[in-house]
Amino acid sequence: GLMTEAQRVTEGAFSMAREMLQRGVIDGDRILLDGHTLTSEFMKAALKTYFLERGYGNPHGMVIASGEQSARPHDDGHGPILPNTFIVIDIFPQNDATGFHADMTRTFVKGKASDEMKAVYEAVRDVQAEIADYVEAGVRCADVYAKTVEAFKVRGYETSPERGFMHRTGHGLGLSVHEEPSFNV
Question: pLDDT tens digits, residue range 82-108?
């Protein structure tokens, strides 16, 4: 349906972002794309153009954050996209004609991931699989969130509003980018 279409268009935007990162060349503490420093602003402009050409807008913006910015939920990101760090891309466009949203977040690394970064990746992957197996009709959203928090704690990660897992497990999606139900406390 309409939401599936929005998600597919957003997947195309992620393919574009991935391709930009793959084409980029690491030069010290920056990534060069076609000889220019790749910045959050440049990638956002390219993705906005991609969405506009397909009848989508980004009324709430988008996140393209690397380095320390990537550790702050909903930091929009600015400046050079840094190599050898997490690069968080969170895109939530809205179809101009139907009003339906998509909402997808992906994390990339251009260059070498540290052992700590690899461990975080593995923990998130494993917790995601564990929670996916737990979710079924009738399970309360608050219980899904609590199980997610516990799964990170068991793996030795912090789960406070300031550090570690500090965000909800998920949320509904449709005519609003954040619809009920919300998978948090």
Answer: 999 999 999 989 999 998 888 888 999
Q: Which of 99, 75, 104, 78 is nearest to 12 (CA)?
A: 104
- Can you tell me the distance from the alpha carbon of 25 to that of 15, in angstroms, rounded to the nearest whole number? 18
Tokens 């609590």 belong to residue:
146
Measured distance CA(184)–CA(98) in Å, rounded: 28
Instruction: Give the length of the chain.
Output: 185
Dihedral of the CA atoms 92, 44, 122, 31 (nearest 10)?
A: 180
Return the residue matching tokens 């440049």.
Answer: 42
For residues 138 and 133, what is the distance between their CA atoms, to the nearest angstrom?
14
User: Strand, coil or helix: what is 55?
Assistant: coil
What is this structure's pTM? 0.86
Residues whose CB is less than 8 angstroms from the CB of residue 45 and which lie 6 or more positions away in sequence, other chains included: none
